[in-house]
Amino acid sequence: MPTLDFVLPHWLYWLGLVVFPLIAMVLAQRVERSGRDEELSVGVAFLMLITAGFVGLHRFYVKSWLGIVYLFPFIGILYANGQHRLAREAVSAARNDRMIADFDVDRFTTAIERGEAGSAEKLAAARESVEAVIQRVAAATDSVETWSTVAATLAGLIALMIVADAFLLPRMARRLAERERDIAASQGADFSEAPPTPTRAAPEERPGGLTGLIETVSRYSGEYVAYWSVIAVFVYYYEVLARYVFNSPTNWAHESMFLMFGMQYLISGAYAYLNDSHVRVDVFYARLSRRGKALSDIATSAFFFIFAGTMLVTGWIFMMDSIRVWEVSFTEWAIQYWPVKITITVGALLLLAQGIAKLAKDIAVVTREAH
Q: Do 223 and 25 contact (CB within 8 A), yes or no?
């Protein structure tokens, strides 16, 4: 099997974190506005062909159970790669034994020159060991080449099937769509009428002014970074594929994702606070009235602002120190750390602003219900 040596460029990583959520939000809003259940999509079928065609997922999408055929060579590739790894370990061990055996030959040769008793027999045994180790190295090397050939052959077979399905897939999708429409028609479905527009609940009354602006920023910041989770699906999918199919584990997938989730955690704090999703000990709080809850939140808000203020100050220090030296990680990927440190300050600012908005709403509740 060929190896994958792709390393995610730093610029592409940061660009993806910025651009991908914007595209995802636009597509999500478009689907939400359409209010229509999409029929089987040829585009989705081709996406599955490209990303997971090696296990026949595109076939299963169009309800062709011949996709099972893909599983047999794929399982064979996994087995061949496992044997390939074992054979490489055997080569490494045999070469190490060869070095030891050569050292013994040299040592006993020197011992014979010194006239040490029994050295001739030990030298003969060492030379026999060298010959045996040479055969082990050759056998292990042949095993590596054999299993590599097996995996490459199976991969070539899957590639040929994928190419063939690339031509067959549109027709299979059309046939399935026609078959499903016929089944629906036989059950009395009427396609002449437009699909009903989904009813949406009336949005919760939102405050205006500065408080409303802060809540809007908190809401969109949380929704924005939520789409980063989708990126993790693709990255870890690539990592598993590279590691177990191509024997090429990456040096960037895990680091890129734990940094991304750390930034997501920081930025989405305000969104969680807006939706009252932070952990709360509410044994007594849950029993209070709306005004009682507001009074309780006002009384305990000092602790929140101490935490948020401390986070802002320390985050600012970390951020400036990191920017001053253009900090990067100590790993082989050497990704920039200073943008990560910036999100500490950004997250603290968002959280602090949302706390101010929450305090203003609580004060309004207490004031309004007092009259």
A: yes
Interior angle at CA 28, CA 27 and CA 34, nearest 5: 90
d(CA 22, CA 44): 20
Q: What's the pTM? A: 0.71
CA distance 70 to 63: 14
Give the pLDDT score at 201.
Answer: 41
Burial class (CB in 10 A: 0-12, 13-18, 19+), 206: exposed
Q: Residue 289: pLDDT band by 50, 70, 90 thresholds?
A: confident
How many angstroms separate the Cα of 247 from the Cα of each of 1, 70, 239? 8, 20, 10
Asked whether the beta carbons of 323 and 184 are under 8 A apart, the reply is no
Q: Is residue 203 over pLDDT 80?
A: no
Helix/strand/coil for 328 = strand
Rounded distance between C-alpha atoms, residue 277 and residue 360, angstroms: 19
For 253, the token pair is 């997938």
Residue 187 pLDDT class (50, 70, 90 cuts): confident
Phi/psi-derived region of residue 188, left when phi > 0, alpha when psi is between -120 and 50, beta in every other case: left
Domain boundaries, the chain: 40-180, 209-370
